[in-house]
Specification:
The chain has 485 residues and is mainly alpha-helical. It has one domain (11-483). It is built from 17 helices and no strands. The chain has helices at 11-44, 46-82, 86-121, 126-140, 143-158, 163-184, 192-219, 230-245, 256-288, 292-329, 334-365, 374-388, 392-407, 411-436, 440-463, 467-470, 477-483. Helix 1 runs parallel beside helix 6 and helix 10 (292-329) packs parallel to helix 12 (374-388).
Length: 485
């Protein structure tokens, strides 16, 4: 198992090689999410699809807490690896995982008991309420696995290894789909069996990821490769696990400076993602007022859109890891080159994704549902995709700027742009749906928010003092930065 130094070599070549497994990982992760909706719609019908769909923005609120804290973990891990300080690296990971485990456990408990009250606040249609509540409660029982799994993925990526998360995602996605189908073959099974399958798949992938990550961290500083051959590989894994688990004086199991730095990076990310998710709850509440057909159409459409946009977000995450390693290594002249290379990669990917989505929208939507009531659902989702997909070319500019601001630790710029984007989208969703007297007004709020949010992000990159945040990671000051961990 290898790590990769992103502070040397061609930025474009490095980003293509490094981001490709991340893109494939996200693709499988989104298939993971889409699977429940497709299987629910085709095997159980429109109401089941709507029940799964109405739960989606609620699960995203819980997810954003874990992924937001994982952002802080990833940035610090990348910097420590860029500094070439093994002890600082292990201290960072150990501290981060302790915090994320505690937060994940708390959110699992909170999410279970908050499921029904949240669905009532969303004005969930009565005919799907019970199914949605049962699906959501079971789903949240696996939240601690999701948090640890997300943390493992960002650490792998921070170490320059994006292949391991891909392997686990392929495995967990296939396991999830197989379990979905098997459970639904049981007489009387409903949407709750779908969330049960997801929890089992997530728990299995989480356990494997933690074990492999500990092994990889144990091998850092002793040679990054595990020798071929089953017996030698097994022996190396256990030696690596023991090396990382052993409480050595050279690194700390828990570090307050790492905790505070992680919180300073993670909390703004959590607030930013949470504000977006809360905004989605307002939008979901608005959509629920249009009835089950629109709820189901939006649920399928947003899964397809999320599939496309998450690919470019994965490329932006790869760019962020590239920048964070270069910040830690003090090779700050590579940041602009990385931005240009990242934007080029995202533009090519967006062109392919948008082209496929626009040309095949009705056919893609028909995968989610068939038979009675399917025509209205397909029409709603298709119209949504036609409106929002062309504007992805605008929002990728925001993703590039956000990657730079986050890697520099200039979180106020990232949070401000995202928050204003959110407020704009929610406000225009209500305004345009009222003016147009149609759900299409909701879809038009997306491009408007993206345009404003992108302009703000660009302004922060051009005029904000983010360079002061990365100044300590240069020359002799880098030693002080490592010592603080």
């Amino acid at each position: 198992m290898k790590t990769r130094d992103l502070s040397r070599g061609s930025p474009l070549k490095l980003l293509i090689i490094f981001s490709l497994p991340m893109v494939l990982s996200v693709a499988f992760q989104q298939l993971y999410n889409i699977a429940d909706s497709v299987i629910a719609g085709r095997m159980l019908g429109r109401d089941a699809l709507a029940a799964v769909s109405v739960s989606y923005p609620v699960t995203m609120i819980y997810m954003c807490v874990g992924t937001g804290m994982a952002v802080g973990c990833g940035i610090l891990t990348s910097r420590a690896y860029g500094l070439k300080k093994t002890d600082a690296l292990k201290t960072t990971v150990s501290t981060s995982f302790t915090v994320i485990l505690l937060i994940g456990t708390a959110m699992t408990v909170i999410g279970f008991f908050a499921a029904k009250p949240l669905l009532r606040l969303l004005s969930t249609p009565p005919e799907i309420f019970d199914d949605a509540a049962e699906y959501l409660q079971i789903y949240t029982l696996g939240m601690v696995f999701v948090y640890l799994y997300s943390a493992c993925n960002v650490v792998f990526q921070a170490l320059g290894n994006s292949k391991i998360p891909l392997c686990f995602l392929i495995f967990s996605t296939l396991l999830n789909v197989v379990l979905d189908i098997c459970f639904l073959l049981i007489p009387g099974a409903g949407v709750a069996s779908l969330s049960t399958a997801t929890v089992i798949a997530q728990g299995t992938a989480c356990t494997g990821s933690v074990l492999v990550l500990c092994s990889l961290l144990g091998s850092v500083g002793r040679g990054n490769d595990i020798k071929p051959g089953f017996v030698k590989k097994a022996a190396a894994v256990f030696m690596s696990l023991a090396a990382f688990a052993a409480r050595k004086k050279s690194y700390k199991i828990f570090s307050k400076p790492v905790l505070f730095e992680m919180l300073s990076l993670g909390i703004p990310s959590v607030l930013s993602a949470a504000s977006v998710s809360v905004g989605q709850l307002f939008v979901q509440n608005l959509i629920n007022g249009y009835g089950t057909t629109v709820v189901a159409g939006y649920g399928a459409g947003i899964k397809i859109f999320t599939f496309f946009v998450q690919i470019t977000i994965a490329e932006a995450d790869a760019l962020g890891m590239f920048m964070s390693q270069n910040v830690g290594a003090g090779t700050h002249s590579r940041l602009k080159k990385g931005m240009a290379a990242g934007l080029l990669i995202m533009a090519v990917t967006t062109a392919a994704a948008a082209g496929a989505g626009l040309s095949l929208a009705p056919q893609i939507m028909s995968l989610f549902i068939s038979g009675e009531n399917s025509a209205g659902v397909i029409a709603i989702g298709t119209r949504m995709l036609y409106i929002i997909l062309p504007f992805q070319f605008i929002v990728i500019n925001k993703f590039v700027c956000d990657a730079l601001l986050k890697s520099a630790g200039f979180m106020i710029g990232f949070v401000t742009g995202t928050f204003i984007d959110l407020v704009t989208r929610v406000g225009f969703a209500y305004l345009l749906s009222w003016l147009l007297q149609s759900s299409s007004g909701i879809w038009w709020s997306w491009p408007i928010g993206w345009i404003i949010g992108t302009l703000i992000a660009v302004a922060f990159v051009l005029f904000a003092p983010w360079k002061k945040k990365i100044a300590p990671y240069n020359g002799e000051n880098a030693e002080q930065a490592a010592a603080a961990l």
